[in-house]
Amino acid sequence: MDSSKKRAARPAAYVAARRAIGYQQLLRHLDGELTLDEARKETIKATRRFARRQESWFRRDPRVRWLDASGPAGPLLDQALSYIRSPRP
Q1: What averages of pLDDT result for each successive group of 10 residues across the chain (89 residues)?
Q2: Structural domain tally of the chain?
Q3: Residue 52 belongs to what domain range?
Q4: The overall pTM is greater than 0.90
Q5: Which helix (H) or strand (E) holds 2?
């Protein structure tokens, strides 16, 4: 947390870091707005929201090919390599 305090003191130097999931929550904890447990829970919620947005974005991209990873690794690897090696328009 010491590095977070230093970064918070120099906001212009860490603009990208401030946007990272968990960073804002940690800063709010350091400012006394959240307990550490609340910051952790807020980080988990933010991570889930980000994952849902990312999945939605990927589903709209026709270049993304979803593979079923619930089975054995061998056939999955074969599928992935076949897709990578196949010519695309």
Answers
A1: 58 71 92 96 97 94 89 92 86
A2: 1
A3: 2-85
A4: no
A5: helix 2-9
